[in-house]
Amino acid sequence: MNDSALIELTVDTENFPQDKQHRRLDVWLSQQIPDLSRSRIQTLISTGWVKINQQVCTTKKVSVQGGDRLEIILPPPEPLDLEAVDIPLDILYEDDCLLILNKPAGLVVHPSPGHQNDTLVNRLLAHCGDHLSGIGGVQRPGIVHRLDKDTTGAIVVAKTDFALQSLQAQIKSKTARRQYLGVVYGVPKTNSGTINQPIGRHPIDRKRMAIVPIENGGREAITHWQMQERIGNYTLMLFTLETGRTHQIRVHTASMGNPIVGDPEYSRGKAIGVNLPGQALHAWKLTLNHPISGEIIEAIAPIPDTLKTLLEVLRRR
User: Fold this and answer.
1) Would you call 148 a catalytic residue per the annotation?
2) Which of 26, 148, 150, 263 is catalytic?
3) pLDDT tens-digit profile of 200-246?
């Protein structure tokens, strides 16, 4: 966003949370504004961007009360001096409105500490030039959703504000469909299923995610899965996301006892004899409606060589 935005909320007296933890300001706001992470909300509070009953509140642990009126100001993102890096992109679809890319393993999507000029955003700036500037904010120009650093596959980028709003709305309303292929340790007890477990930051290791109850700050997360091929004590799975939380598939598969092969954070499986760049997870198919024409676009990202090699090695055992 180019200007500050104001969010106004009133604590519902009739549905006021009974437990003290759920009434805590940062926890309550994270439930009311799911598009903002809890850490982002805590930063807004500590820097004076949150008011309760017209009084600035900088303490996240204060409890909200029934009838309280809150104002949350979202300041514009601080500009970053991003360098355009001219490295070819593997483009699956492109027009004046959007482009869909096949992201390789090892590529971070947007700038973060330690990754300022080696991200997908840097490559997009070189490919799209000034046309992408300002779309969705300086820090994440055009980024509709993200993929983990070592997850490969299809990711869509908006070239206009209208396209960004449309695509984000499609993901939120679940009209956009994101399907992944992954290899897990073990064999599930059934051929298909759904994991409906909320996800939040790990209570101890803040770099990881975990199954966290809603009342403790977790956010709804739903993953549908289907077995594609049983390969000894491994399984090729098809995942369809209904929500898109950070590390969702990786956390959900680990919670069911079948973590993704090669996952450095959520798997402690034995060596498999294949040099994987990370987790064996690939964003295989992305289906969405074109923001302007409404035409259905289906982009399929070819399975990467590392995943093909893994499957071949497992099938020979």
Assistant:
1) yes
2) 148
3) 989 888 789 999 999 888 999 999 999 999 999 999 999 999 999 99
